[in-house]
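Practice problem: Dihydrolipoyl dehydrogenase
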Amino acid sequence: MENFEVVVIGGGPGGSDCAIRLAQRGKRVAIVEKEHFGGTCTNVGCIPTKALLSASELYARVREKGKRFGITGEVSYDLKTMLKHMERSVLMSRKGTETLLKKYNVTIIRGTALYNERSFFIKETGEQLKAEKFVIATGSRPKIPSPFRVEGIWSSDDVFNMEEVPDSITIVGGGVIGVEMATLFSNLGSSVTLIELMDRLLPTEDVDVSKAIERALSRRKVRVVLSTAVERLESGEKFKLFLSNGEEVLSERVLVSIGREPVIPEGLEKAVKTERGAVVTNENFESSLPGIYAIGDVRGKVMLAHVASAEGVYVAEKLSGYESHIDFEAFPSVVYSSPEVASVGKKEDEKGLEEGFRSFLFPLSANGRANTMGERDGFAKLITNDKGIIVGGSLVGAHVSETLMELVLAVKHGLSIQDLTEAIHPHPTIAESIRDAAEGLEGKPLHI
Ligand code: NAD
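Answer key — structure tokens:
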């Protein structure tokens, strides 16, 4: 096999963007993929969930809000057509990644990379991979511990193969996947129970976000059970879950979404330093083996496609001799619930804010655009430090996945409250709520 300057292992968003940037910088680069390009995000993550959420959301919106907008008549859905829309979206994304890799002359190697005696090999052909540097971007898989290792239990991967919508589903884990899946199945009319170990949903988000999402899901008849673990599970015609609060829950399906675990190429886990199953790296993403780098979910830190991609680009630039910078204080996260959640930087938790920090929450019920859309649920909440610099923001509401970027730039560049209030925001938009929250922090809110 040809000698490469860099071989990237794994063709998800992190690996693909890393390989493309290396090629753009003139490196001889190859990428190894055992299955489909696009990784978890394209094939069993971001893209198929968002396709199903968009389709089911349209249905649910017409049912819930149609009458108010003067839309009459019965609506129904056809799961097969929804799944076709999902498959088309996945295929577009997968093919798009492959086309870009080819466009930039990245050599594509099909197969499974494994590590043995200080070298990487392709498992299926036995060929040795020769390169000066390797970038491991092999991602993660759903974590399914006992008592959930039972035939018929779903992880998020299985949802995309469903043949019919379950009448009832219990979702274990009220993090990002749990909340998105509870949204999806409640849109589709399933009876949903959502069980979370901690005392609030989305425990890593702002406390006000958790409250808003718990309210929104409860309104959609999702039964939210907090501070509870599943102790035992029996399968039969239906699954029976025995909860730590003494309750027994019966449901047709059980979906486990209690986190993901890194996937390390076979053999490498014995040679490289790991911690809780993840590859340990330094600040330049180099592992304990010189010349072997790791990016994305395999590091077990922030498991987000856009963070993997940023890490991939960072490594590509550094390996090509260019400066690069990653700001982990300002990475955005989005939950595609109804309403959506989008946040960046500091959050307020049960303990409140740090000394000198302040926050202001502006409700969307006072926002003109939200009212015209019939989407009054949600808010914009900003947090400033003791110098009046924006250090975090959490948004709940329609389209906030798109409006968040203003706050990402504010946090990344240390903008002040005044920087936001002096920027003219278009009217009527959901984005105005960000300026309104900033005005609240100034003590001069015009619209509340
Ligand atoms: P997560 O870490 O977001 O949430 C897991 C939840 O399960 C936590 O709230 C945790 O307290 C709870 N939990 C853990 N053990 C439990 C138990 N035994 N019983 C009940 N609850 C339990 O993990 P996830 O939702 O599985 O998502 C995996 C990863 O994928 C995350 O890093 C997430 O950010 C990422 N992801 C991101 C998006 C997005 O960006 N929109 C969408 C899906 C997944």
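Discussion: The pocket of nicotinamide-adenine-dinucleotide is lined by residues 172-178, 180, 195-198, 203, 229-230, 257-260, 303-304, 333-336 (CB under 6 Å). Students who identified this feature from the tokens alone can consider the problem solved.
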